[in-house]
Amino acid sequence: MRNEKKQGFALLEVVAALGILVMLFGFFYTALNGMYQIQDVYQAESRAVILLNNTVERCNAEKKLSHDIVSSIFLDEFQKSDLFYQEGFSPVCKEEKNFSILSVMKENGKPLAELKFKR
Amino acid sequence: MKRNTAFTLVEMMVVMAIMVTFISASSRLFSDGLQCSRRSLKQAEINQVILIIMERWQNILNNTSPDEWKVINKKFHAEKISVYQDKRHLVFDNAGSISRFFLPSEVQCSFSVEKPSGLAPCALLSIDWELQRFHSAKTNHVRLVACEKKQ
Lengths: 119, 151
What we know:
The complex is a heterodimer. Chain A is of the alpha+beta class. Chain A has one domain. Chain A is built from 2 helices and 3 strands, in the order ααβββ. Chain A has a 3-stranded antiparallel sheet, covered by helices on one side. In chain A, helix 1 crosses helix 2. The longest helix of chain A has 50 residues. In chain A, 23% of the residues are buried. The radius of gyration of chain B is 27 Å and the shape is rod-shaped. In chain B, 35% of the residues lie in helices and 36% in strands. The termini of chain B are far apart. In chain B, the strands form 2 sheets. Chain B has a 5-stranded antiparallel sheet with strand order 1-2-3-4-5, covered by helices on one side. Chain B has a 3-stranded antiparallel sheet with strand order 6-7-8, covered by helices on one side. The chains are: A alpha+beta, B alpha+beta. At the A-B interface, helix 1 and helix 2 of A face helix 1 and strand 8 of B.
């Protein structure tokens, strides 16, 4: 009996190899997309911190400070920041005794950045 | 039946088509990954620079009067202080005492004075730059305000 050496690959082997390749590509592409999303979140967080810093700077320059003034400055800063043009972020300003609580909220209702400002 | 050649023309073409697809997808994925890394590094560098500039910008203007604030030829002036962009540096000139902050490439600074009605005036330093994302450029903008410190 002649022992014939197998030449090339069977169709099943080629299909399996292609399937693994497609899975690998899918995995790397998802990971890359995830990195971009993390970058966006980090960028939005830093913008929110700068927004709050600008608000505090402007509030400290006011001679008379009420919740309405703090709120109007905060909303004005939000409208002029990049966050205003990005979907999923909203400004929330709450009053609490001598404090104003300023938050930039995410779409899921959690705060991206928050500040308790004493008037 | 024994084959004379390893592959027929059709088989070779199929193999080549798969190879071309594989190579182009790999290179695309590699370039996107590289771009993502470069974008992250640039973003981190810019964020770091912004924080340093923000502190300096607010500290230097806290003790100046808003009446003296003016922007002439893209330079911000306040009493003896002037702030301007010199190519890739942001220069703070405080009566001859000069500090220069290195700016990442493609970062543009501009100055203005805002006087909102019923509120205190504020000096505005706008920082703009572009970042690549999936082969398209996105313009980023950050505003840094400085006000006179209330006595």
